[in-house]
Amino acid sequence: MALPALKTIKWVTTDCYGTLIDWEKGLADAFKREADRDGLSIDTDALVKRFLEVQAEVMAGSYELYAEVMRRAGVKVAEEIGWRIEPSRAQFIPDSVAAWQPFRESNAAMDRLAGRYQVGIVSNVDDKLLGVSRRHLRTELELVVTAQQVRSYKPDPAHFKEAARRIGGKKGWVHIAAGYDSDVAPLLKMNVPVIWVNRHGEKLEGRKAPSATVKTFRDAAKKLGAGG
């Protein structure tokens, strides 16, 4: 599905973590600090990769707040490498969200998008944790949809159906996201144009092509005529 003509676009939404906020670095730093307390040396890149996989598995079950999803995933991935973390101690993971920083281009690009379109965030998070992250994001938002609001996690389409309901339909709406499986795939099924921020150079490997693929969020803004 191609991107629509810019003059027909009214709304631009984006995912938050991985798209605007560098959660991989935030998680890696948090796990390293905690492992250092126990005198452990860990492969943080491998641990974060596994954490995100386990997190998706937990999300696929019955709904619970994102902070609890993070705690459960953290306990499991630590256990897999022989590092025992009590569930209460795993609170360090949601607590770390306050320190997760935006990618360098995020705020400037969001400001430029907001100067041209109505903008919003559609994220697999609870309201409290998104509020913490929004302290790092300066752009005013016209729309916020969280997992807590719809009691569901992407790739289930509940987020996007709710966004469409609030926007008043799918026409004139483009979404930007780093997660192919969580965001790109479900939106393509809904015939909503989506720009994939493919920071790690993933291959499609038979998956349906997004409306556009870019390397950074700044590049996504440029695609929508909000460069700078």
Description:
The chain has helices at 23-37, 44-59, 66-80, 92-96, 106-114, 127-134, 147-150, 158-167, 180-189, 217-223; strands at 11-14, 118-123, 143-146, 173-177, 194-197, 212-214. The chain has ten helices and six strands, in the order E-H-H-H-H-H-E-H-E-H-H-E-H-E-E-H. A six-stranded parallel sheet has the order 3-2-1-4-5-6, sandwiched between helices. It has 228 residues and is α/β, with parallel strands linked by helices. Helix 1 crosses helix 2 (44-59). The mean pLDDT is 97.
Largest sheet: 6 strands, parallel
Averaged pLDDT: 97
What is the strand tally? 6
The fraction of residues assigned to DSSP E strands is 5-15%
Classify the helix fraction into a percent range: 40-55%
Distance between the termini: 26 Å
Q: Please report the number of helical segments.
A: 10
Which class best fits the helix and strand makeup?
A: alpha/beta
Rg over C-alpha atoms, rounded to the nearest angstrom? 18 Å
